[in-house]
Amino acid sequence: MRNLIQFVFTCFIIISTCFYVAAQPQERINLQLKWYHQFQFAGYYAAHIKKFYEKEGLDVHFIEGGDQKSVLREVTQGHADFGITGSDILYNYIEGSPVVVTSVIFQHSPYTFMTLKKSGIRSPLNLYKRKVMASGDQGWFLLRSLFFREGIPPDSIKLMKHSWNNQDLIDEKVDAISAYSTVEPFQLKKKGYEVYLISPRDYGLDFYGDLIFTSKRYAENNADVVEAFNRASIKGWEYALAHKEEMITYILGLPGVKERNITREHLEFEANETENLIYSNLVEIGHINTGRFQNMLDMYKELKIVPASASIDGLVFEKKEINWEKISYTIILIAVFVAALFSVIFIWNRRLVKIVNKKTKELKDEVENRKIAEEIARQNELKLKLAIKGANIGLWEWDVYTQEFTISKQWCFLLGLDFFSLPIRKNIFDFIHPQDIPILKKSLKTNFAGIRRLSMHQLRLLNSNGDEIHVLISFRVIKTEVKKGRKLYGVVVNIDNIKKQESSLLQLSEELMHSNKELKKFAYITSHNLRAPVVNIVALMSMFEKKELTENNVQIFEKLDASVTKLNDTLNDLIEIVSNSRKDLPKLDTVNFKCVFEDICRSINLEIERINPSIILDFKTQDFKYTRSYLESIFLNMLTNAIKYRDKERKLTIHISTYEDDRYVYLKVSDNGIGMDLKKNGQRLFELYQRFEPSIQGKGIGLFLVKSQVESLSGKLFVNSELGVGTTFTIAFLKEL
């Protein structure tokens, strides 16, 4: 009997609903999209192809947007019934546009400022007096609000009309462009550029993103259609987010999508970012919080973008007219439902006890969970207090209107004061060093003028003995309910030990630099002063007649000659090393890789002809600014090393190439020699007198000199080697010297 009643009731509901829907005529709707076809509008496409609109009695047609089309104008002039736009609609409404917001899809705005990472622009303050490209009807008021919030005068920004071409940012025609976080960052990433996004959300400006709106006249005359369109659109978005790949395939088949080089990968990125903006897992799709619109309006008023009398009354759609036909139908359905409810109420009566018991258990669990949460909160509060105490952080509060000043025990401890017997202080300046008071006053004046942000300064406090204590003090100004009232909340961190250590380190650094300078001077003078007598000894040794010596004296003479020769070589090496480390580097000239290489080859021509290596040249970069003598030394050491450490079992092949990027010119020298074990010897490779093959003659100073010469002109040296395979040296020469 129970099953029969449920079956009859269900059939009646389905038949009645189908009859009602079938009886409604199809209403043609024109929807003006905000931009060209992309995943940004996937929910509306889904509502169309899954017939959600059709079931609501709507025949929806999409009108594609673009950079030359104003959504607001298309809707208010009657060319479209509904439009998709952003939170700028609030400003348009205040300015007199007769529009009504019917549903919010994006809970967060995708508008952002996009810069190239290499530009170093990381915050709104970095955009001061920079060129910024933005569109007046594409989130500009949100982005302009960001400038106001951060205290940047609008006229200090060089605003340029948006070209909708990312190449303008790449070519550095502008420093930043307004962009959609779901689209443009991915486009530049695919081109190999790293970007940085300056999002208003990071600075407390969390405005709505995409929303549905219509004209005020249309909403008043077609309230049922507005509600039906909202319901179907929300269902469409729920389906689109649950079936992203299906919708991406559909979008790729829309006109003009592939022609704009939109790929599946592009749409997958946009789909994931769009889902984050919709926030569907926390906020119901389509939900409108009038409080957020009021907060946006309050911010506009605070920044003086709109008049103080502006109001959001009438901005959000509210159905006012009564549809008696639908009400009658609803009453019938309710009557049927009530009848069915009475027929099955005894079933629910049986389950009621179980439900009550279950809810009781849930309430007990909730009470227990709250107790646990309160205990965790208490422990966290204790940990926070311990952290503040351990970090030597003091807290303070100053009510400028009442002149009431409060400080924590930790601050009293910092100043050597007794917290309980502390006399009443009128303001914070009583604690600040007189010379640092102007710094704090200037910061307060700026904050009181309306540019309220977290302020941080290094100042000096005076303790109870009058001694200076270096601190880092930060505060934020908050308005109070009292007329023109201001409160300052802040912290003070003791950095006195850090400042003292910093001073000691600076003094030590200066002493080390002085000692190093004197040491180099001593080495240079000593090596040159010793060289003359050593050269004389070598010359005298060469003039000595050894045949007049006894056999025993000949052996002594030969050992003496070897020692003098070794001493002479060591002095020559020392002079060369010291000369290369001196600050008075040779002047820079325009040098040609090929010419220098050919000169070096001529200087070691006999060695090259003896070995007959295969030398492959690829000079993509020919000329650059450098010291010719250094480049000659680099080529000479690279070539002679390749010849010395060749593999006797195969013909020596040397590859030499050059290329460049935005910052460096690169020289790459590769050979197929015996190679090196970099794990074993890599740390000592460029040290003085390091040789890893005793069977091969050499001094062990060539690579040391190359590294010294390269780094003296801010260059870099890299090596890659494998035993039995060969070695590759890559040298990066800085372009701007």
Strand content: 15-25%
Number of strands: 22
What percent of the residues sit in helical stretches (DSSP H or I)? 40-55%
C-alpha end-to-end distance: 95 Å
Q: Characterize the overall form.
A: extended
Helical stretch count?
23
Structural class: alpha+beta
Compute the CA-based radius of gyration. 40 Å
Largest sheet: 5 strands, mixed
The residue-averaged pLDDT reads: 81
Strand line-up of the largest beta sheet: 2-1-3-10-4
Low-confidence stretches: 18-23
Tell me what you see in this structure.
The chain has 737 residues and is of the alpha+beta class. The chain is 47% helix and 18% strand. The strands form five sheets. A five-stranded mixed sheet has the order 2-1-3-10-4. The longest helix is centred in the middle third of the chain and has 67 residues, at 324-390. The termini are far apart.
Index terms:
737 residues; alpha+beta; 5-stranded mixed β-sheet; 47% helix
Secondary structure blueprint with pairings:
Layout: H1 2-23, E1 27-32, H2 42-49, H3 52-55, E2 58-63, H4 71-76, E3 82-85, H5 89-94, E4 99-104, E5 111-116, E6 131-134, H6 140-149, E7 158-161, H7 167-170, E8 176-180, H8 184-190, E9 195-198, E10 211-215, H9 216-221, H10 223-242, H11 244-252, H12 264-278, H13 290-302, H14 324-390, E11 393-399, E12 404-407, H15 409-415, H16 437-448, E13 455-462, E14 468-479, E15 486-494, H17 496-543, H18 551-581, E16 589-592, H19 593-603, H20 605-611, E17 614-619, E18 623-626, H21 628-644, E19 653-660, E20 664-671, H22 678-681, H23 702-712, E21 716-722, E22 726-734
Parallel strand pairs: 1-2, 1-3, 6-7, 6-8, 17-19
Antiparallel strand pairs: 3-10, 4-10, 5-8, 5-9, 11-12, 11-15, 13-14, 14-15, 16-18, 19-20, 20-22, 21-22
Helix pairs in contact: 1-14, 2-10, 11-12, 17-18, 18-23, 19-21, 21-23
